[in-house]
Amino acid sequence: MEKILVLDFGGQYNQLIARRVREMNVYAEIVPFNKTTPADICAEGYKGIIFTGGPNSVYDEKSPHFDKGILSAGIPVLGICYGCQLIAYMGGGEVCCAESISEYGKTDLTVTESPLFEGVPQKSVCWMSHTDYVRTPPAGFTVTAVTANCPCAAFADSERKIYGVQFHPEVTHTEYGGRILSNFIKNICGCKGDWTMENFAGTSIAKYREELAGKKVLCALSGGVDSSVAAVLLHKAIGQNLICVFVDHGFLRKDEGDTVERVMKNEMGLNLIRVNAQQRFLGKLAGVTEPEKKRKIIGEEFIRVFEDVAKEIGKVDVLVQGTIYPDVIESGKGDAAVIKSHHNVGGLPDIIEFEKIVEPLRDLFKDEVRAVGRQLGIPEYLVSRQPFPGPGLAIRVIGDITAEKLDILREADAIFREELDNSEFGGKANQYFAVLTNCRTVGVMGDARTYGYTVALRAVTTDDFMTADFARIPFDVLAKASNRITNEVRSVSRVVYDITAKPPATVEWE
Ligand code: XMP
């Protein structure tokens, strides 16, 4: 299988680089810079290597460096941002550290002829994010691009197929970024591009079939797309040795628990145990209002429930989780700031009675997970479902949670989703739901004063859920949803629509 190595120097766009490569139907593997050697790289048969960006300056004492043997392995290399500076610095070029010329954002780029820039106009816009810059490339390299502040925005040794770009071709703001990456992957590395999600599914199934042979594996099924795909993938690998435990924590949407049980058990043939643990979760959460605390409690309780089930099942060796990449970064990988500790990443208790945890979708973005799901034959309506957070409605009832509030939210949410699904606007929002705020307001019904809950409607458009915009739903669709909610759902006297983007807000209210 053709594959590209993304050598990770800690940059924020590393997964995006891998994703862009995979979009060209070439498998990309991300490996930390210090976890491989030139010998390993040659043995793996990579067709090309991309050095990622990173937060360091090449002059920092502890800045990550690469083994120079990589550049003489005869494999094409593309260094991006820090990766580019490192090639220059380690090859004897000149890297300058000058605060005064740091470039951030869209920048005019002028390129000269180079295999990397085939089909790229002489002038275009690129995305820059750097303080250090390369002043002179190493011996044997020529400058192939400049910007107003960057005398060497790209360099190349076309003979050895080693390239460096100061800007970020993986970011959509770089006008010809896709073309540049495709030039590298297809033309320079010579990849044909025949990798598909079918390969990913096939390779993963084969891998886990071998790795988990003879093991009893327990899968944490939460009801969402991610854990469903993880479960079916593992089921295809190890069949009945996979026991799926579907914990209905009571925070699922209307009718969701029954649908998941029916599809997974009857249609997909999974060995599935449903645990109705609503009371247990509600008890633990009584009076808890702080969102992070809710997540931690739910995450821990999930594991506790599994442990209890595991005791009944007998010895269990491995736990499977449906963690996907955005969960990982938003929970603070490495030194990144913790925004929300998504329960399936952050909330694991210290004492855990499983040998290990397997996360087959950890490197995939949402759309990639859906593609894998389709390959595995999971019904379309389940695969294309909007994402749903692990802690479910517990983080959509603002403040303390009660069974009554959950019922109110479930009804309001079902109405809003139904109205949007049935409207022309339909699938244009990537995630849409209702939130039960803890704000009560005065209303009037008939001749009487009411004092009921305020329901907030949230709908966002986004590519990757890392950033999002509020969906421009037509007013008449909102009006209909509002009207139905206030008429049909007891105790709701007001409906509002959230018009905040992410950032500064997040998709969920908690
Ligand atoms: P935020 O609110 O962080 O949401 O902008 C981004 C995406 O993540 C989902 N989300 C969660 N998923 N556990 C999850 O599994 C969580 O605790 C959690 N919090 C948010 C959210 O629904 C959106 O799709």
Structural topology:
Layout: E1 3-8, H1 14-23, E2 27-32, H2 38-44, E3 48-51, E4 77-80, H3 82-90, E5 94-97, E6 103-111, E7 123-130, E8 132-136, E9 142-146, E10 154-157, E11 162-165, H4 177-188, H5 197-211, E12 217-221, H6 225-238, E13 242-248, H7 256-267, E14 272-276, H8 278-285, H9 291-313, E15 318-320, H10 325-330, H11 343-346, E16 356-358, H12 366-375, H13 380-383, H14 403-422, E17 431-445, E18 448-461, E19 469-470, H15 475-488, E20 492-497
Parallel strand pairs: 1-2, 1-3, 3-4, 4-11, 12-13, 12-15, 13-14, 15-16, 18-20
Antiparallel strand pairs: 5-8, 6-7, 6-9, 9-10, 10-11, 17-18, 18-19
The protein binds xanthosine-5'-monophosphate.
The site of xanthosine-5'-monophosphate (XMP) has 17 residues, from helix 10 and helix 11.
Kindly report the spatial arrangement of strands forming the biggest sheet.
Answer: 2-1-3-4-11-10-9-6-7
Helix content: 25-40%
Shape summary: globular
What fold name stands as the CATH topology of the largest domain?
Rossmann fold
